[in-house]
Amino acid sequence: MKTDDLGLMIGTLDLLVMRTLAWGPRHGFAIARWIRATSDDAIVVEDRALYLALHRLEERGLVESDWGLSENNRRARFYQLTRAGKKQLQSREAHWTAYVEAMFKILRATDSLPA
Fold it and tell me: What is the CA radius of gyration of the chain?
């Protein structure tokens, strides 16, 4: 499957960013790199979309940021989940998991009509 075949569904980018930050603070490039690597290059987040999501999450109080030095000794803004962000992540993961499980049931159905 080509990478461009897997566009991000509405609402998924915020969840992906929050999941990435669940393990601690990261700068934008590290967030995008983790998503891409973890999805085996199937999901590539464009810079503009990533930073719009980070700013949106920050405005909602789900993420906070601070300046620091990256692994390359460059100044970078590091983002981390707030307490509210951690609660929101748990809630969104539960909803997405239920949705994905329902989709798999439908996609793997072997009968045209349920009994």
Answer: 17
Q: What pLDDT score was predicted for residue 5? A: 43
- What residues form DSSP beta bridges with 79? 26, 65
**Bridge pairing between strands 26-27 and 75-81:** antiparallel
Domains plus CATH for the chain? 3-107 (1.10.10.10)
Per-residue exposure over 88-110, b if at least 16 CB sit within 10 Å of its own CB, e if not: bbeebeeeeeeeeeeeeeeeeee
Report which of 92, 21, 29 is spatially closest to residue 58, judged by C-alpha positions: 21
Confidence of residue 111 (pLDDT cuts 50, 70, 90): confident
Burial tier of 114 (Cβ tally within 10 Å: 0-12, 13-18, 19+): exposed
Calpha distance 67→82 (Å, rounded): 16
